[in-house]
TrEMBL record:
KW Disulfide bond (keyword) present: no
GO MF annotations in UniProt: metal ion binding
Superkingdom as given in the UniProt entry: Bacteria
Protein name: Mandelate racemase
Record domain Mandelate racemase/muconate lactonizing enzyme C-terminal: where: 147-255
A Pfam family it matches: MR_MLE_C
Signal peptide positions on this chain: none
Keywords from the UniProt entry: Metal-binding
Classification via SMART domains: MR_MLE
PANTHER family tied to this protein: D-GALACTONATE DEHYDRATASE-RELATED
Presence of the UniProt keyword Membrane in the record: no
Length: 383
């Protein structure tokens, strides 16, 4: 980021924080690891005031002590010489500060961070996928009823403008008997792919509930599907990924290997550089946006693909759209249909499998300030 337009006298004046709540369009079931994800969602949002102007955005791990320390600091001192926020301010404050910078310069965040290859006046339109296809079928005894339900859910996604879908798999890892659950995964992948049509890209995510041989069983059974990636097939392990990659290559099956969310191995990026992992998926909230600006540039250099993980955080969906402007090999925004009361996202839209990022200042989101302040009093604080 270019810091030459940061006035040395701009100082942090106030920080307010609150939790806003809302819900998913549809309740989400289990995944390969854990139980129901449900309908309720919340986001922790901070409002920062600098030089009389405000910015809003997601805030993680912001303590009152840190806020007290930052109040009175010069904005320019929060950044290093490369125009990146210093580490301690990133997860707590990067989003409200970026939103502030966008408002101060009356430009979207994506213009502040865009790579030099991007034409600055072109609209930002980014591929996205519907990430809502969980194990919503566990109450159904019959495989064909389960397939019908997940097909119906993908049709809801199609009606909302989606073309690409990620399907949770690994039913046999915990929630169903091993082979019955695996067979159901395979039938559901076929059903959703049929609903999505030949152009729709399908991703599957086992949340580490498969092992190498189960992964091969499933991939062999869905070789007729436009399967784009297999995500977290099993806990990342270079010996197993070397084997899976060689097996896919020997078969001529074009499926990418994606991993990196959660407690990722510190060696994962090295394994990717060695060619056994294709898509990296660290989270857009933690380690976050500034981390992704640095990582995404390196992944581009190494010819690897970036797909920031973003499930369960409504703010992250919009942030992921913006960061696409900085990363050449950006894959998709992970889109979950969540409405947060008091956070107006209506300037964004999903159409034909693409996420349209508005040409509006900051992150292009509008907040109901009265509601925000009532939430600050109820569940937050102010410094
Ligand atoms: Mg995942």
């Amino acid at each position: 980021m270019n810091l030459t337009n940061l006035h040395p006298e701009w100082k942090v004046e106030k920080i307010e924080i609150a939790t806003l709540t809302g819900e998913r369009a549809r309740s989400a079931g289990s995944n390969g690891r854990i139980g129901d994800h449900g309908k309720n969602c919340s986001v922790r949002i901070a409002r920062i005031t600098i030089d009389g102007e405000t910015g809003f955005g997601h805030s993680g791990q912001l303590t009152e002590e840190l806020a007290e320390r930052v109040i009175g600091m010069r904005l320019i001192d929060l950044f290093d010489e490369n125009g990146r926020l210093h580490e301690p301010y990133r997860i707590p404050l990067e989003y409200p500060i970026l939103d502030w910078l966008g408002h101060r310069q009356n430009t979207p965040v994506y213009n502040l961070i865009a790579s030099s290859e991007r034409a600055s006046d072109s609209p930002l339109v980014v591929p996205c996928y519907d990430t809502s296809l969980y194990f919503d079928d566990l109450h159904l005894q019959n495989e064909s009823d389960a397939v019908a339900l997940l097909k119906e859910e993908s049709e809801q996604g199609l009606a909302k403008g989606h073309r690409n879908f990620k399907i949770k798999v690994g039913r046999g890892g915990r929630h169903m008997p091993l082979w019955e659950g695996t067979k159901r995964d395979i039938a559901i992948i076929h059903g959703v792919a049929e609903a999505a049509g030949p152009e729709g890209k399908i991703m599957i995510d086992a949340n580490n509930a498969y092992n190498l041989n189960l992964t091969k069983e499933v991939l062999a059974a869905v070789a007729d599907v436009n399967l784009h990636w297999v995500e977290e097939a099993f806990h990342e392990d270079d010996a197993l990924y070397v084997d899976l990659k060689a097996w896919l290559q020997a078969r001529g099956q074009q499926v990418l290997i994606a991993d990196g969310e959660g407690l990722a191995s510190p060696y994962l990026v090295n394994w990717a550089r060695n060619g056994v992992v294709d898509v990296l998926q660290y989270d857009i909230i933690h380690p976050g946006f500034t981390h992704w600006l640095e990582l995404g540039a390196k992944l581009d250099q190494w010819g690897l693909r970036s797909a920031p993980h973003c499930y369960g955080n409504a703010f992250g969906i919009y942030a992921t759209g913006h960061i696409a402007a900085a990363i050449q090999n950006f894959e998709f925004v992970e889109y979950d249909d969540i409405s947060i009361v008091g956070m107006d996202t209506s300037a964004y839209r999903v159409e034909n499998g693409l996420f349209h990022i508005p040409n509006k200042a900051g992150f292009g989101l509008d907040y109901d300030e009265e509601l925000f302040f009532s939430r600050v009093r109820a569940n937050g604080w102010s410094r």
